[in-house]
Amino acid sequence: MSNPAANPGGSSSGFGSQGVGLSNTIHSEVAPYLPLPSLPVFCGAYDPELRLFDDRGGGDLWYLNRNEIVAQSARIASMLGDTDVSYLHLRNDVRPMSLDNVVPLELHDQILRRNPEAYEHPTHALENKPVHVEPSNLVPPKVQNGNDQQSRQSSSTPNDTDSSMRKPKGKRKGSVAPVSVEVSDPSELEPSDPSELQDATIRNFCDILEEFCGKAEVANDERDEVDWLALPASDIRFLVNEIMLLRGKKLLHLVPLEALVRLLQILDHQIHRAEGISIDQLDHSGSDAVSYVFSALESIHAALAVMAHNSMPKQLYKEELIERILEFSKHQILGILSAYDPAFRALHKPNEPEAYEGDENEDPEADYCRSGKRRRVQKSVKLKKSAYNKVNSAMNTILQKLCTIIGLLKDLLSIERLSDSCILQLVKTSFTTLVVDNVQLLQLKAMSLLCGIFLSYTQHRSYIVDELVQLLWKLPVSKRALRSYHLPDEDQKQIQMVTALLIQLVHSSANLPEALRHATTGHSILEVSLDATYISKCHEAITETCCLFWTRVLQRFTAVKAQDSAELKLLMENLVTDLLTTLNLPEYPASALILEVLCVLLLQNAGLKSKDVSARSMAIDLLGMIATSLKHDSVSCRQEKFWILQALDSEDDVGCSFPKDACCVCLDRRVGKALFMCQGCNRLFHSDCTGGRECEANQNWHCQICLCKKQLMVLQSFCNMQCKDNGRANRYGSAKSFETANMVTKIEIIQQTLLNFLQDSVSADDMHQFIGWFYMCLWYKDDSKSEQRLTYDITRLKSNLVVRDSGTSHSMLTRDSMKKITLALGQNSSFARGFDKILHMLLASLRENSPVIRAKALRAVSIIVETDPEVLRDKSVQLAVEGRFCDSAISVREAALELVGRHIASHPDVGLQYFEKVAERIKDTGVSVRKRAIKIIRDMCTSNANFTQFTTACIEIISRVSDDESSIQDLVCKTFFELWFQEPSGVQTTFSGDGSSVPLEVAKKTEQIVEMLRRMANNHLLVTVVKRNLALDFFPQSAKAVGINPMSLASVRKRCELMCKCILERILQVEEMNNTEEEVQTLPYVLALHSFCVVDPTLCVPSSDPSQFVVTLQPYLKTQVDNRVVAQFLESIIFIIDSVLPLIRKLTSSIVEELEQDLKQMIGRHSFLTVVHACIKCLCTLSKVSGKGASVIEFLIQDLKNALKEDTVDYATYTANIKRKRPTPRKKPGRGAPASQDMYDDDDANLTGGSAVRKRTTPRKRIGRTLADDMDDDDDYDDADWMGGGRRLTGSSTRGNRSAGRQR
């Protein structure tokens, strides 16, 4: 990457463009944090179709032996020939590699044929030509003019080989001519012995130091002292490159101490010269000041590069120099923050002018203003614009250099113990960067530095946590908080910087042993000496850090005023949201533990048990969010079909159950895709599903499970062998118990896949090692046998050092696969198991006295149920929710019903479980509750075709058709319209196989009506429903204003006619069954037909055969049975016939005569007065229709006379008896008087078939009186009469029994 040089002369040409270059920053440091695209290695090619390794998800595109890749070998050879890779120092890091399993690469051979030197390591500096050393690098800046300075800025930095092999002539204090070093043969200058090469490198570096120091020192003969000259930044940068080169060779500690001390002294003076100068003072300072700043920054870089190297002498670490470095770095960081964030500048430097704007009152980009205004300010903008660009470029350069300095400061922390004042200053400065925008890279470096302090300086952990809490309160309060930390995820998710810092601090608190961190071989891992309880103590340290953070946060929440608590609650919700975002991502295991500790605190006195209502309310909201996420992860894991997880869950061996002819990953059986077999478990896989290559199909290839299993077995054998050799088995028990504890389990295999993934995800700050160690601490705590195999568990963390070549070609799993594995492993953690406890406490909060808390808890339970409605089937949840059905607050009762009603359609079993309690709420005092209960029951009926409580549901709903609230009446009628009377859309008309002309769908609805009536006392309510549905008067007022659609009215009427026809058919079918209780089985059908006939008798007069219903029902009048059920049955039939007769234009004489004869016989023999009354009324109607009114009246009078003669009772006495027996009107009992049973012994009570039985002393006279009344009001209809079951006479219906009654 570019490394822009500073311009001491102040010329803008030295700064180049405004783009941010990342000097001394490798790609691996930036890529994990920034949304950088995945650039392919062929990005410089002209042909866009050339693809190398870029698309791993596209099958075999990354396989280099493909024809389209080999065809580009000439272009690749040309690219390699023009590429200088000397900066990679490949020769310094040569490691032997096993080539046994390497596939022959045809592309490699083709490139060599095109260009045999394509893979050579070019060393242009050692060619047979002189090496020119620019004099500007050897001359002090006071001797040079501006042109020399400008040429020095534009000159290229000598490469590393030039600087390491150059031998300066001596000290130079003035302008010197260019020096040429003639190199005849590079091989002659390179010593063959490595020790000689090392000595030569150190001597060259010492010569460079001598030359550098000579330029900075000037002897003062008058004071016999040395004066210090200001060095240009380019000279110091050249020295920095030489130091970094020697650091890379790990030879810096071999440089003589005197030379290093002298160097640091000169660098100290360069820093001291620039103290108090900041880059944001550019408009108020000269060019020398800017040069001093850049020189000081380069000097800090050089000094830290020396001191941050391992094994350096202690004499180098002078506290004064370190403090000056920290102070100057802090000053420059604050200047950078002020420049990048105007809000920060206004807060910290309110009196300074805006130096970076084009004018005092104008925006720097004034070009976008109106044309007239642009002309007026054009001159001032032009004068300021160059300075603006210059400062921007300078700030970018300083920002990059500060990032490098912070990285070196972190390295210094692990080498030299700094004073507490230095540490506190570093902490303060690092936290300051996190409150500013647009400096993400600086923030990442500051976070890394804080983690280093947190790891190395445990005594300051409490202070760092306090500062983190203070930072949390400084964040902007918004639901859409600034989230600038990019997660390494395909979805490019982001979280807040403060959340990322918290997670990294918790990772650092795991106390990863330094020996284990720097171990490079398997034997060095075994040499790590740890106590058996060390990992347990590490887990305690992690928990302590989490507790400390959340305790501080919750204490701050309880201490603030009520108006500020809402803002702090929002900040905590943002923090919890970020933690839930990172939950179950393989790189952030700390998120689960941080949330777990928060849940523990919220379940105690800091949350649900707090006396503060706001604290309890906040705890419920946060616990609801966390529990919802846990339940979502549980459902996702349960539904996941990932092959590794299925192997983990299976009870048999990992290789037993798998498809025999399909890929185990995608389960695809297509013949076109090649399958290759794992040699360990015989599973079949596609190459693109596992990251393998087709050329490995015939080799010794192993899947990831078998690979990890084999890897663990090797580690087990290695540890057992080493422990036996060194006698370590006795430290953790006997050798036998050690071997028993080291049995490879399936959970260990899955865990090892995650550890392997982390080992391959190498990070510059070793964060992957901290993450792996964090996982080991979590797993170690949950494993009861962990203490017996400590060495084995530690070795698993760096298995790649022990198992370098397992004899197989590794097939790396994708990141998406690792996320699934992490999710599955997370289900075994204590945090995931805590869901039941959280849910239990939320359910307990439903019984709180405060309605606010109850509403909050119900809302929290609702979002959990939204994730998994099966939670409602839990008995404890059911009891808690049903308890809220009876809450004192109407809103809570309605919310509880809403909780259940939302999931009725998707989970019918849940509706059935809650049906009884929901049905009770249909009589609730709250109108909204009753409405919601009706809607829920309606949804239960419509969503489940096999709902077993359908009839009960209809009875409960129809009971509210007479509700006091008209809106509920309309809702009930609309509900039955949707259930029964609405024409279904898109349903094909089908008929039953018994020859019926009624569609099956209508027949089914009719049976539902009949079943409802079978369990009802009467059909009054059904009459109301049918009446309103035929009129469709329950629609909203807006629909009524427009007008009811005539098509809808006709459709409802047609369905009612079909229902009546279906009922008639069912009556005949019941008769054909020859049931002994025919009337009992037929009664519900007759009552249903009765209901339709009451509303509209024309429904029972089909146009094709108007007399069909009369002819069909007339034979039932011949029944000889005399009981209450039959009385109700006959009364309904008689009413139907009576209603239909006037609508029939012409009746055959035979029907009229037979019907007349049956009615007359029933008048004489039936003992229920309501039936007799119905017969007389129907007989009168028949007489009108047939024109035989006089004969019918004559028959009735004659029958009355005969009865009076046979009774031989004085008429006066009979009249007196009639007056005495006449029932009195029913009256309400007076206050305090008991209600008499006779109150209910009138006709209205008898209509239901439950009448009281009274003696009949003068029946004929009673009949005569009733008949006279009916003759006057022949067409009147009394609802209390047609329901049957009237007063029954004691004794037989024969004449002899009547006489016996009179004698008594």
From TrEMBL:
Low complexity: bias regions: 175-184, 1289-1304
Region (Disordered): 126-196, 352-372, 1220-1304
Flavoprotein listed as a keyword: no
Compositional bias per record (Basic residues), positions renumbered to this chain: 1220-1230, 1253-1264
SUPFAM superfamilies recorded: ARM repeat, FYVE/PHD zinc finger
Bias (Acidic residues): 354-366, 1269-1281
Compositional bias of kind Polar residues: 144-162
GO cellular component, one term: Scc2-Scc4 cohesin loading complex
Gene3D superfamilies listed in its UniProt record: Leucine-rich Repeat Variant (1.25.10.10)
GO biological process, one term: chromatin looping
A molecular function GO annotation: chromatin binding
Domain PHD-type residue range list: 660-709
CDD domains: PHD_SF, SCC2
InterPro entries cross-referenced by the UniProt entry: ARM-like, ARM-type_fold, Cohesin_HEAT, Scc2/Nipped-B, Zinc_finger_PHD-type_CS, Znf_FYVE_PHD, Znf_PHD-finger
Record keywords, A-Z: Metal-binding, Zinc, Zinc-finger
Pfam families referenced in this protein's UniProt entry, alphabetically: Cohesin_HEAT (PF12765)
PANTHER family per record: NIPPED-B-LIKE PROTEIN (PTHR21704:SF18), NIPPED-B-LIKE PROTEIN DELANGIN SCC2-RELATED (PTHR21704)
Full protein name: PHD-type domain-containing protein
Species of provenance: Linum tenue
